[in-house]
Amino acid sequence: MSRSAHQDDFFQTTASLEESNRKAAKSRNTEGRPIRLQSKILAVAADPTRNGFVYVAESAGSVRRVALETGESDAVFKGPTAPVTSVCFSPDGKLLFAGCWDKTVWSWDIATRQPKTRYQGHTDFVKSVTTARIGGQDVLISGGSDAEIIVFDIASGSRLHVLKGHARGIQDLAIDPLSLESDNSKLVLFSAGSNREIRRFNVPPHTGNLSDSDALLVHETSVYKLFFDADGDLWTASADKTAKCLVRDNDWNPDLVLQHPDFVRDVVVQEPWVVTVCRDEEVRVWNKATGELHHTFSGHFEEVTGLLLVGTTVVSVSIDATIRQWSLKPDDLQRAKEESQKKKSGDEEAPRQESMLTEEEEHCAELATEEDRNMATLSSMQIDDQGGGPGQGPDLVNRLHESRSPYVRGHMHNPVAWQLWDSQSIDLAKRHNRLIFLSIGYSACHWCHVMEKESFMSPEVAAILNDSFIPIKVDREERPDVDDVYMNYVQATTGSGGWPLNVFLTPDLEPVFGGTYWPGPNSSSLPPRGSVDGPIGFVDILEKLRDVWQTQQQRCLESAKEITRQLKEFAEEGTHSHHEPREADEDLEIELLEEAYQHFASRYDSTNGGFSRAPKFPTPTNLSFLLRLALYPSAVSDIVGEAECAQATAMATDTLIKMARGGIRDHIGHGFARYSVTADWGLPHFEKMLYDQAQLLNVYVDAFRVTAEPELLGAIYDLVTYLTNPPLQSAAGGFYSSEDADSLPTPNDTEKREGAFYVWTLKEFKQVLGQRDAGVCARHWGVLPDGNVAPENDPHDEFMNQNVLSIKVTPSKLAKEFGLSEEEVVKIIKSGRQKLREYRDKTRVRPDLDDKIIVAWNGLAIGALAKCSVLLDEFDNARAVQCREAAVKAVNFIKNNLFEKGTGQLWRIYRDGSRGETPGFADDYAYLTEGLLHMYEATFDDSYLQFAQQLQEYLNSHFIAEGPDSSSAGYYTTPSNMTPGVPGPLLRLKGGTEAATPSVNGVIARNLLRLSALLDEERYRKLARETCNAFSVEIMQHPFLFVGLLDVVVGLDLGVRTVAGVLSTADITSSAIPLKDGVVSKPDEPVSARDLLIKKVREEAGPATSTSAVAVSLVDIRPSSVENIASNLSIWLKGTNPLFKDLKPGQPAKNFLLICETGSCRTVDFVMAKPCTGGAIGAFLSVVFYLDIRCALHWIAVDLVRDIYGVVMTVLEELSMDLALGVTRVT
């Protein structure tokens, strides 16, 4: 597709410009006496009680009543915030109904205009509605994109029938008028679908048997409209470019076909005419008897969406937001036909005047008025006066050495004179009237490095940027607020996003044009200069933006302001529900979980796991949602379905196992890459991000708790090893951000290559492992002589003969193939992995480390490690302690270096010995608070709980968005008080959807609910509810995008069950809490009463602690502990939670559980008994036996019982090594 050659329209194709100009010219016509509205019109219906009035369905989410004579709107029916697709009326004409994209049918009292019942049941857009009276009962019938037709009782709102049969969505419904003329006890409904079918249903009143006939297949594709004429014959409009008449007396076979040049959208019949509308904007009048085209009314300048007969007038509506009227009276029709022919003849006879202009000059002259040209001249003069032209203005110097960001500092030797995102740079743009070129990326981004190499190291690019723009480089991990605003812009304008993110801004920071990666002067994918085909080069873009700013500056400014206005509207996400106070019964309900589940189930890749094609991302938040479904109280499974909840667990588990086997996992080292380029998880994008490791550890822990699947435990050990060792864990205690995708293949190389550190050749395998072991390991990890990366996934030939390792063959199969025992195969794989790792570390250059310590991502890691420690406590105490200690160090690091105790403020970044100047964002507070809550549950040390509450209070003071009546409307991502001298974002956003990291508002709402339960603080629960309700409109439309908030909805709807352990005595002989059967411990290892109580708390709570439905705590009320504040880890909690303040030991003192749920609390005492011995090892034994049975690995001896304690310790050590090395049998 060629681009326009005109500089002011460079980024549009010539065809698109011509189409825009045609529509602009046609929009001024007055044919059909247009009534111009403000919103696209999707449907029209006649007023049943007042002649000359129509109701139109608007994409803005309202229904409008319009007088055809005057064009005035005398009533607007509001409520929906999504487009309204169809309208109809109750049989008595007193109620108005409208189908909506929000999957419901709205209704209003026409007299009062007040909303009435909302009819729910569809799982996708409602596309058509109609009503009827059957056997004295008024019914509403709706058809949706979910392929279902629902019959409602209008009075009660209850569903009478659900009609199924269509394979795809319903487009239109029509009631056979002859069925209404009979005994009125049953109607016949015709439905049109997107899969070419027209179906008939016999619909009885109330409940009863339903039947449908065989589908009528008279069209090649979608049928859009159905219309019964006065003879009872059925007319159809289809995307196969025809309208047809199906004759009742001929078994509904067509006897007349009207051919059109494009999709036919609607058809109506008014003897002797048939009127149709087509996607080509025209209204056609046909002779019904002959099928000949009689006349074409031309007036609409966008697609026509509906027709309506009003007497002898046909009314048409369009997405051009106009209502037009065309008379079908014989005289009027003849006059219109003659005028059209006369105009056509005049156009043909008018000679074209010769022009002295070139084609380009002539086109420019048509586009620009004299005022435009004067404004362009004035703008150019202003640029010259202010020094904004090429070669003028400041002598820029690269300032990136002032930054702390490794990514930003990596560009400080570019010839581009990069500036920082600060007031100095913005003032520079304003003073010299230049566009800002903003480039955003991050250290581990492969394409960021590609663009630097191709463009930012180019003298040609540097000369243009330095002379004509103010180039600014930003690290998205430091300023996610800036990145979010302009990523929204690029996604909205281009349909996609990613990094590097490149945006041209006015000096007021308003966007003009943007995109992601553009080929630089040295790119192999760039076409020859001057070519109009292929991708646009970065130099072309720079030159055109420079020229447009000089010659069309006013247009740029106006366009940028309009874009910014639309972005502000987009930023209203989370406020749609807050224009008016909400009623209590409008809260979100857990039924939304079923719809979210269905979304994932419909997109599940049963072959490879995951929920998309390539590229494929792990999306841990979605996997956590699926795992939680089976952990919630039974009220959830009653709605979603027990089988569906089990399937959700299976989908999540299978995906996690496929990932653990796939190339996305580093099988020689540790950790997971960010995503897979291929659908089978085989070829990763090799960067490793801290936030991915943390979230994956979290979800693998949950999955193992639910399934006890051994391969999941292997991944857990792998992730723990990666997180708690260099290079990711800093010596100071915090966790670094990421490892790069690109690296030098050898120390002697000068060019980095993607994945160089991770890929292998078969030759290297043989060199490192020897012939026999190389053969076994190559088969196990899928290593091929010519490499295992398909050519289509290697456009730059970086992976020729290279292999990405993933588990392909099980040890048992390898044993048979190579004539070895299975034990020997396992030893070869373990030994081979160790040798390959040593070789890799010795001969290759490790990818660059982004050594920023980011509070938010550290919060995720803290929470995951704390949660993992609780799991490992059951069978691997040493590794559990390792997890907890790493988390404790990170908490202390943040508290000592990035937290101001006096104000409660966090600072986001620490690097190179000091903190940065970027204040904490909402994700820093939210993720760290969540991590602290997990730390509390892992240690029951209430200092973490106290710290969490302090951070939440800071969020409430500086990030909360105000709603009506002093309520909250969610949380902004940025604080109200940005750092002086540092520009804030163009907009304050407030997102609720899940992304690469969890929804910030979802995490905040969950934190609030947990704090409410742990502290018995109703204020937090209220804030949690208001945060969820702030996004209610969006959640109801697309619940699968808000799975974090859905978890909170469950806790709010069903209540949070709290399990508190109350420690009254240290005497475990007189008031011990028995553990599970079979749990024993070593006799020489003392068990404290506190430890036993903690185990019982966790046992009582179960794995549901991973959801918002359960919270656990522990309070020490022993007199000695109450008096000794320093040693009591729950003194603050006891004084804060009203339930605990008055608790005192009984006589005799006994430890017990305090369980609160559904508004009441109860205590659970325990029978005094001699404590069982040595629990953790016994629990571990069961796991080991289970793993041995499942994996058939040579981990334990057959005669384990003979010397139980000595063997168990050996097993523990060997299992830890096996799982850390990833040696598990693929079943």
UniProtKB/TrEMBL annotation:
Bias-annotated ranges (Basic and acidic residues): 333-352
UniProt key word Repeat: yes
Pfam family for this entry, one: WD40
All copies of domain Spermatogenesis-associated protein 20-like TRX, residue ranges: 398-568
Region (Disordered): 1-32, 333-365
SUPFAM superfamilies linked to this entry: Six-hairpin glycosidases, Thioredoxin-like, WD40 repeat-like
GO annotation terms (biological process): carbohydrate metabolic process
Segments annotated as WD repeats: 77-118, 119-162
This protein's name: Spermatogenesis-associated protein 20-like TRX domain-containing protein
Organismal lineage: Eukaryota, Fungi, Dikarya, Ascomycota, Pezizomycotina
